[in-house]
TrEMBL record:
This is Tripartite tricarboxylate transporter substrate binding protein. Belongs to the UPF0065 (bug) family. It comes from Muricoccus nepalensis. It comes from the Bacteria. Residues 1-29 form the signal peptide. Pfam families: TctC. Keywords: Signal. InterPro entries: BUG, Bug_dom1, TAT_signal.
Length: 346
């Protein structure tokens, strides 16, 4: 992916990927825990497939499994996680877009396949935004920049100095071309004025394994999937990409603290369903997700992994309508990034 610094900086609000809260048009009754919309009374009466468009062990997968556990507790049926990776999330998302719209196949959507890829892949996209219906935003997460322990750098400033002294010798990994992790790496290279070779993987799991082994020296990942390796010393964290430090990794500075305030990025994950899924089912599932993301225990689990809850409504939750507005704004923003930068995927 080739991104010009001038092109990115020309788009207002593009370099900072922080997410703004949106107000909900729904009343409290629609958000009540377990609220059942007319016509959704018999749903679900069998297991529901929850498609994750990335490999196991990545943040999309981790967040989906936490959510699946709580959905089963609320709705009384298993939500079975099924990983379908490929094309920056497009393979799994396309499977859901073309699935039977009966409420028994839903998607754990990510920022890449849910916003970035619509413009990045252009005419090669296998589905359209209108092929999927928004149900609820589940979690937002910072990205983290880290290195293999064998690399002799202990801060982001030291990494920049090392890269400048060793041009073209470092690889930087991500979980896929077009992901927010890829773009964060591009922003890092542009802001710091350094060169590293991007190495995309089919998910966070294989990427993390290669960095731990030292075959890839630098990487960017969503904090939840990398945090265990960072806490246990298998990888060395250099900076998080949020404006403030995260309580989940309090000793890790921000990119701004390390002299690169333009490298700011926040990823997101939420539930979508096939577009023609009956609206009462979408509303019911959305109300249950809203109840789950407000649970103190769920918030604590996500926060321990570095996640931030959606907070699309004044009460700190989510609704289908609020998530729809959010996704439309993200798609427009990322479309502008891709067009102005000339970014492409091979």
């Amino acid at each position: 992916m080739s991104v010009s610094r001038r092109a990115l900086l020309a788009a207002p609000g593009i370099v900072s990927l922080g997410l703004a809260a949106l107000s909900s048009p729904f009343g409290s009754a629609a958000r009540a825990q377990g609220a059942t919309a007319p016509g959704a009374a018999g749903w679900p009466n069998r297991p529901v497939r929850l498609i994750v468009p990335f490999t196991p062990a990545g943040t999309t997968d981790v967040a989906a499994r936490i959510l699946a556990e709580r959905l089963q507790a609320h709705l009384g049926q298993p939500f079975t996680v099924e990983n379908r990776a490929g094309a920056g999330g497009n393979v799994g998302a396309d499977a859901v877009a073309k699935a039977e719209p009966d409420g028994y196949t839903v998607l754990m959507q990510a920022i890449s396949s849910g916003a970035i890829n619509y413009t990045l892949y252009g005419g090669r996209m296998p589905y359209r935004p209108e092929d999927l219906a928004e149900v609820g935003l589940v979690v937002r997460v910072p990205n983290v920049i880290f290195v293999t322990n064998a690399l002799p750098v202990r801060s982001l400033r030291e990494l920049v100095a090392y890269a400048k002294a060793n041009p073209g010798k470092l690889n930087i990994g991500s979980s896929g071309a077009g992901t927010s992790l890829h773009v964060t790496g591009e922003l890092l290279k542009m802001e710091a004025g350094i060169e590293m070779t991007h190495v995309p993987f089919r998910g966070a799991g294989p990427m993390l394994a290669e960095v731990i082994a030292g075959r890839v020296q630098v990487a960017v990942d969503n904090l939840p999937s990398a945090i265990g390796h960072l806490r246990e010393g298998r990888l060395r964290a250099l900076a998080v990409t949020t404006a403030a430090r995260t309580p989940a990794l309090p000793d890790c500075p921000t990119t701004a603290e390390e002299g690169l305030p333009g490298v700011e990025a926040t990823a997101w994950f939420g539930i979508q369903a096939p577009a023609r899924t009956p609206r009462p089912i979408v509303e019911r599932l959305g109300a249950v997700i809203d109840a789950i993301v407000k649970e103190p225990a769920t918030r604590a689990r996500m926060a321990d992994l570095g996640g931030m809850m959606p907070d699309l409504t004044p009460e700190g939750g989510t609704t289908p309508a609020a998530f729809t507005a959010f996704v439309r704004a993200e798609t427009a923003k990322w479309g502008e990034v891709v067009r102005k930068s000339g970014a492409t995927v091979e």
